């Protein structure tokens, strides 16, 4: 009898909850579906959980924007199976709800997730640390010394995770990041459920993650080997800081590494008016010509900032099909200048949009960035028709993805990766909502209600479901106290 009682107890307390989970999986709310408690028995017995289980999601009753210039479609549905968008259409063709996690989106706009084309995510620790300074003073007198004193693996992990929280909350589903100790940034993004192209920084001087600069290429190659093919969310890359912090030999070796490994090559370019005078052993008459002479400019290269370009530079970058990422908020705050984005677009360049690190922004909200991009281009061209809202939105979605080397995201199309966001467009500042132009000129990151990345519900009803944000904030407060004491 004792043996039978033990068997009964095992069945009742162990198997019954699992059976109930399987039977009821399509009838729970999104919060329950992704909660740690809900998955505890499944994780224990089957080794799975929110990040590994194949899920089917049905979003119904939404206003749908499939890509930047597409017409708005009212009363539509989208289905997601695994990591991909599987179907979409009018509610008249909506499938039944069996086997789906259902999200009712009658007050929501569903649109592609935003792509932050350039960030130094771990620099969240230095938000507000050094404001109202010139680029040279900000970088050399404040940021480089602070990084030497405070950058370490723990700092990078928690600071990047804080950036992930800010980006998810404001609708960014993918980020191209460049910094040091990039293994830890990549792990933070993976843990948070954010898609990321993560570049490990290369400079010709000692930094915390590479004390001996002669080992910078070796260190980055090791980082690439560790992450290549390891996670569907993380794509490793090479990030050579700039023509003035890397010698020609280092730049050539870094680009060769990127090409040999089949990863993206990123570099800051023409950010300041004085950059040509700062270049180590210049090989051309401008920073762009310098990179061209070294053979760095091609389809596998992304150049960031590209402010100080002449007509020849613009033609060269466009002809080489280089990806371009502009960071208007950061460039304005540091008075670096305004990138000639309209001229680049006129030449056929692929342009993305980035925030830069929030030490020079100080926000990671791409809606804010879109508004600034549109208005600065109109101002610099003295033309109110320059840089339409739809062109700007494209820079933050499809064009932005291609600018950093990704072609599986940026639109909501069957077969594309399911990276999309839901915005509450029934808020007073978004009514009436005639077109997606309102996203550029009126929306903010706080309008984002839910976020799906790689088919996984990462945020719902403004609650991040993949990690505890409060834990990250508490860790960051401790790290910030150390920075403040040393200042």
Q: For the CA atoms, what is the radius of gyration?
A: 23 Å
Q: Uncertain runs with pLDDT below 50, 5 residues or more?
A: 1-54
- Measured by DSSP, the beta-strand proportion falls in 15-25%
Class of the largest domain in CATH? Answer: Alpha Beta
Explain what this protein looks like in three dimensions.
This protein has 487 residues and is an alpha/beta fold. It has two domains: 2-112 and 414-461, Urease, subunit C, domain 1 (Roll), CATH 2.30.40; 114-403, Metal-dependent hydrolases (TIM Barrel), CATH 3.20.20.140. The chain is built from 18 helices and 17 strands. The strands form two sheets. Strands 1, 2, 3, 4, 5, 14, 15, 16 and 17 form a nine-stranded mixed β-sheet that branches. The protein has an eight-stranded parallel β-sheet with strand order 6-7-8-9-10-11-12-13. Helix 5 packs parallel to helix 6, helix 5 packs across helix 18 and helix 14 packs across helix 15. The chain is globular, with a radius of gyration of 23 Å.
Question: Which terms summarize this structure?
Answer:
2 domains; 9-stranded mixed beta sheet; globular; 18 helices; TIM Barrel; Urease, subunit C, domain 1
Topology:
Blueprint lengths: L1 H23 L5 H4 L2 H11 L9 E9 L8 E9 L2 E7 L10 E4 L3 E5 L1 E6 L15 H16 L2 H17 L2 E8 L2 H11 L2 E8 L13 H12 L6 E7 L7 H14 L2 E6 L5 H4 L8 H7 L7 E5 L5 H9 L3 E4 L1 H6 L7 H6 L3 E4 L12 H16 L7 H7 L2 H6 L16 E5 L12 H5 L6 E6 L2 E5 L2 E2 L4 H18 L1
Parallel strand pairs: 1-4, 1-5, 6-7, 7-8, 8-9, 9-10, 10-11, 11-12, 12-13
Antiparallel strand pairs: 1-2, 2-3, 5-14, 14-15, 15-16, 16-17
Helix pairs in contact: 5-6, 5-18, 14-15
């Amino acid at each position: 009898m004792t043996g039978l009682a033990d068997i009964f107890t095992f069945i009742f307390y162990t198997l019954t909850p699992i059976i109930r989970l399987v039977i009821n999986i399509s009838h729970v709310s999104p919060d329950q579906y992704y909660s740690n408690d809900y998955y505890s028995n499944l994780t224990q017995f089957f080794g799975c959980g929110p990040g590994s289980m194949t899920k089917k999601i049905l979003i119904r009753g939404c206003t749908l924007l499939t890509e930047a210039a597409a017409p708005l479609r009212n009363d539509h549905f989208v289905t997601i199976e695994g990591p991909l968008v599987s179907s979409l259409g009018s509610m008249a063709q909506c499938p039944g709800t069996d086997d789906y996690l259902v999200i009712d989106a009658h007050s929501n706009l569903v649109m592609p997730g935003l792509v932050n084309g350039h960030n130094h995510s771990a620099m969240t620790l230095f938000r507000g640390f050094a404001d109202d300074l010139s680029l040279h003073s900000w970088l050399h007198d404040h940021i480089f010394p602070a990084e030497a004193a405070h950058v370490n693996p723990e700092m990078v992990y928690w600071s990047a995770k804080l950036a992930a929280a800010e980006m998810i909350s404001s609708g960014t589903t993918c980020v191209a990041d460049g910094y040091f100790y990039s293994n830890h940034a990549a792990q933070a993004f993976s843990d948070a459920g954010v898609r990321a192209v993560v570049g490990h920084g290369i400079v010709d001087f000692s930094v915390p993650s590479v004390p001996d600069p002669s080992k910078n290429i070796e260190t980055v190659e090791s980082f690439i080997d560790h992450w290549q093919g390891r996670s569907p969310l993380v794509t490793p890359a090479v990030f050579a800081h700039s023509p003035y912090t890397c010698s020609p030999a280092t730049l050539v070796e870094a680009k060769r590494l990127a090409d040999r490994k089949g990863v993206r090559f990123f570099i800051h370019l023409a950010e300041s008016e004085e950059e040509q005078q700062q270049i180590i052993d210049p090989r051309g008459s401008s920073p762009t010509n310098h990179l061209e002479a070294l053979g760095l400019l091609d389809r596998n290269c992304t150049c960031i900032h590209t402010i100080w370009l002449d007509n020849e530079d613009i033609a060269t970058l466009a002809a080489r099909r280089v990806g371009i990422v502009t960071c208007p908020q950061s460039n304005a705050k540091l008075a670096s200048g305004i990138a000639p984005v309209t001229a680049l677009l006129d030449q056929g360049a692929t342009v993305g949009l980035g925030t830069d690190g929030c030490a020079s922004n100080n926000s990671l909200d791409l809606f804010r960035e879109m508004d600034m991009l549109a208005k600065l281009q109109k101002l610099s061209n003295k033309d109110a028709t320059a840089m339409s809202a739809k062109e700007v939105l494209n820079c933050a979605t499809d064009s932005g993805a291609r600018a950093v080397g990704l072609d599986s995201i940026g639109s909501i199309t069957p077969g594309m990766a399911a990276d999309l966001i839901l915005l509450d467009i029934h808020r007073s500042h978004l009514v009436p909502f005639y077109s997606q132009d309102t996203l550029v000129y009126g929306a903010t990151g706080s309008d984002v209600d839910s976020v799906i990345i790689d088919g996984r519900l990462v945020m719902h009803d403004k609650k991040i479901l993949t990690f505890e944000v409060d834990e990250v904030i508490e860790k960051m407060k401790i790290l910030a106290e150390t920075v403040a004491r040393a200042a």
